[in-house]
Amino acid sequence: MMCKELDILNLASNNFSGRIPASLGSVVFIQTLNLRNNSLSGELPPSLANCTQLEILDLGENRLSGKIPSWIGENLSSLVVLRLTSNYLDGTIPLVLCHLAHVQILNLSHNNISDDIPHCFSNFSAMSKNESTYEFINHGNTPTPFDVTAGYIDSVRVVLKGMELEYGKTLDQLKSMDLSSNNLNGEIPDGIAKLEGLVSLNLSNNRLTEIIPPRIHEIIRIS
Asked: Which pLDDT band, with edges at 50, 70 and 90, does 214 fall under?
C-alpha cells in the first residue's frame, strides 16, 4: 500500500497461494500486473477496479474462481492485454468486456465459462485494424510496458498453432483472441469476421453450433 506510484509488478512463476490481496487496489498508477503461474485462489478482488491505468492484466495459470467481474470492462478501459487463462472461472462473459476498445490480446481459455460468445465482440476496435492502436493511448511522459527506452519490456505468452510462444518487443503488434476449452455454446458471432487484424482466433473445445461465418479471414482452431 506504500508503493502507490508503482508502474509494473511482475510476480509470475512463483509459489504464491491464497487470495490476491485487496491492497493491490491502492496501487492506482500500476500499468502492468502479472501474477501468472502461481497458486492464487478465490475471486478477483473488487479493489482492482481502482487500477484504471492497467494495460496488462495477466492472472493466468492460477486457481481463481467465481465469475469474470463486470468492473474489468467498466473501469479498466486502457487494457491492451487481458489474460485469465487456466483458472476455474465460471458464469458467462460479461457484455461490458466489449467496452475494452484497446484490447489486443484476450485470453479466457481453459475455464468453465458458459453461454454465448457476445455479439458485441465486434466492438474490439484494436483487433479490427492491422496496425497497433496502443500508441494512441494517452500516457504523457509515463513509460509504458512496451517502451524500449523505459528499460523494461513486458512479455505475454500466447498459444499459436498449438505452440506457446512468448512475445515481448513485438507484443504491441499481436492481435489474439482465445476462448478455447470452455463450455461456450450457440453460434460464432458474424461480427468476429470484422476483426481483420486478428492473427489468432482459437474457439476450439467448446459446444458451438450453427455455421462458421464465411467472412472469417484466419482461424487457427475451431472445433
From this structure: confident
